[in-house]
Amino acid sequence: MSDSPNDSFIRYLASKKTVDDRALNVRVLRSFRDSLPASGPASPLRILEVGGGIGTMIERLLDWGFLADAQITAVDEQAGLLIEARRRLTDFGNAHEYRSSGTDPSSLELRRGEHLVRIHFVEQEVLDFARGHSGPPEWDVLLANAFLDLVDPQATLRALSRLLRRPALLYLTINFDGMTLFIPEIDSELDAQIEASYHRTMDERMRDGLRSGGSRTGRGLFGVLPMVGAEILDAGSSDWIVFPDRSGYPADEAYFLRWILDSHESALSKSTDLEQTRLVEWIAERRQQLERGELIYVAHQIDFLARLAGDHPIEERRSRASISPQWRVDR
Ligand SMILES: C[S@@+](CC[C@H](N)C(=O)[O-])C[C@H]1O[C@@H](n2cnc3c(N)ncnc32)[C@H](O)[C@@H]1O
Hints:
- By secondary structure, this protein is α/β, with parallel strands linked by helices.
- The protein has helices at residues 5-23, 26-35, 56-63, 79-95, 126-132, 153-161, 188-204, 217-227, 253-268, 276-291; strands spanning 45-50, 70-76, 99-101, 107-112, 115-123, 139-145, 164-183, 206-207, 210-211, 230-237, 240-242, 296-308.
- Strands 1, 2, 3, 4, 5, 6, 7, 10, 11 and 12 form a 10-stranded mixed sheet that branches. Strands 8-9 form a two-stranded antiparallel sheet.
- Helix 1 packs across helix 9, helix 5 runs parallel beside helix 6 and helix 9 (253-268) packs antiparallel against helix 10.
- The longest helix is centred in the first third of the chain and has 19 residues, at 5-23.
C-alpha cells in the first residue's frame, strides 16, 4: 500500500463501516435502543465511547436516530484518528441539517433545532483514562465497538465500571469470537493451520503485563460481564460477512479485505508453527482471489447489551420474543 500507516488505518476503519452496519445484531441493537434512558435538552444522555477510532459508531447512532440530546466522550489512544473523527462528524452534521460549531479541536457541537449533541475527543490509553478519572461516576452508557478483543476485557470493564452512573447500559459490539473463514478453500489443512496460528497471535499478545486481545473474547464476555457486576440483557452474533455481488465488492470493502490479508501476513510472518513459503503462497493466492472478485470472508463475532446494576430497580425489560426479527431497525 502506498499511503502512510495512519492513512491506511483510517481508510480501513472507514471501509469497515459498511461491514459493521451489516454485521451489528439487529435484535441487540433494538434492545439497546429500547433500553436507552429518556433524554432531553436539560438532561442529555451521557455516553462514553472507548476505542472510538474515526467516530463511525457515533455517526451511525446519529444517522439511525438514537441520539437527540447527548454529551459524548470519545476516547482513543491515536490522536490522528480523533482528528479524522472530528472532521467526519462535522461533514456528517453539515449533510444532515445540523449546525456544527466549536473551534476547540478536542470538541464539537452538533445542533439541530432545540437538540444538541456535544462530543469531546480524548486522546488517551483506555486504562490511563479510567484510572485518571476522579470525581463521581459520569456516564450513563458505555460503547465499545471492535475494541474489547484488543485489550484485557475484564481489567478494562472493571476500571471503566467505576466511571458509570448506575444503572448504566453497556453496548459492546463486534467482539471477535474464534472463527475466521476464507472461501473458497485452498487446502483445508493449511487453511485450518493458518486460522489457528492467526488466532494464537491474538491470544499471545501482551501489553503492560496484561493480555492485549483474545481470539475468544466474545464467548469470554458471558463470564466477564457478571464478574464486573453487569447483567447481560441481550446477546447475539454479529459476524462480518464480506462477499462480492455481480458488480464486485460493495463500497470500499475490497480495501477492507486487503487490510485483513495484510494483517494476516504481518501477524504470521514470524510464526514458527507455519512453513513460511507455504504462507507466502497462501497469501498470494488469497490476493489473487480478491482481485478476481472471488474471495469471501467470514469472522464470527458477538454483540452484547448489559446493565450495571445499581440502587435503582432494574426495569422490566422487553422479552426477547417480543422483538420481531427484522433486517432493519425502524429509524
Ligand atoms: C479496531 S479499531 C475500532 C475503532 C472503532 N471502534 C470502529 O469500530 O471503527 C480499535 C480502536 O481502539 C483503539 N485502541 C486500541 N487499544 C487501545 C487502548 N488500549 N486504549 C485506547 N484506545 C485503544 C485504536 O486506536 C483503534 O482506534
